[in-house]
Amino acid sequence: MKDWLRFIFSKAFLRTGFRVGLAWGVILIGTWLFLHFYSRHGERIDMPELKGLHLDEAISVCQGLNISVVHLDSIYADQGRPHHVLEQIPPAGSGIKSGRNIYLTTYRATPPAEFVGVEEGQDLSVARIVLENKGYRVREVAEPNVSLVNRVIRLENEKGQILRPQDRVRRGQAITMYYGRTTSELVAVPDCRGLVLDSARTLIRRSQLSLGLVEFSLEIEDLEDSLAAVVLEQHPGSNDEALLPAGTELDLYLGEQGGIPRSAL
Predict the structure, then answer these.
(1) How far apart are CA 253 and CA 236, in angstroms?
(2) Backbone phi, then psi, for 38, in 5-degree steps?
(3) Which residue has the higher pLDDT, 21 or 136?
(4) Per-residue pLDDT tens over the stretch 167-211
(5) Rg (CA), the chain
(6) By C-alpha distance, which of 145, 142, 163 is closest to 154?
(7) Dihedral in degrees, nearest 10, Cα atoms 12, 14, 15, 16
(8) Residues in Cβ contact with 123 at an 8 Å cutoff, skipping those fewer than 6 apart
(9) If we measure between CA atoms, which residue out of 136, 97, 99, 94 comes closest to residue 116?
(10) Could you tell me if 178 and 208 are in contact, meaning their C-beta atoms sit under 8 angstroms apart?
(11) CB neighbour burial string for 111-141, b if at least 16 within 10 angstroms, e if fewer
């Protein structure tokens, strides 16, 4: 026991302990100083107002303050200026450290494309709400159609092309929605025989009638065949003396050019 006490209080042990303690003190102080200067303790910058600036201008301002910019997202708005800052995180006036990231959201230049999502036979009022909520400019046009009264007949884009529910159209674009109405007007039945489907559809529409059931002969096997197929038979048939209520449906039977009408088989 006495030997241990003599060793602990010996000059050699005390010198060694002092050196170890001094070394740890230097390490701790050095570490504290490093963290102090690395984190720039107490050095804070007032976050500038970036809203309304063009993205390039906002980045230039932040670079001058040693702030890193992260472009989070872009959002479309009718009144928004493309590529200008809409939102910033943190907000203006916040105290931030130099070198940290700030996050910007800007207005996008082009509106996003949405699925049309409206199909033939859908209720007119429901279809109108769907289209307007997607940001489209909707124009409604009534056509005689006894089977689709106050229901969607078809949609067309600004070029007059028919739109399917799965088609994408950019917000802000104009869409014409045709819907059915009743009428007491009587019209003649056109002769659609020999016409391809698109031409027959146009003729039927101009005659104030509507397209009903469309069937193809067994020889029509794919899309290419169907585009070349012609009307072989229609019901009701064309008759100069026969008049039908406007909006009545015409059923068509199509096949290869020179094919035999179904009624003759």
Answers:
(1) 11
(2) -65, -40
(3) 136
(4) 999 888 999 999 999 888 899 999 999 999 999 999 998 999 989
(5) 39
(6) 163
(7) 90
(8) 150, 151, 152
(9) 136
(10) no
(11) eeebebebeeebebeebbebbeebbbebeee
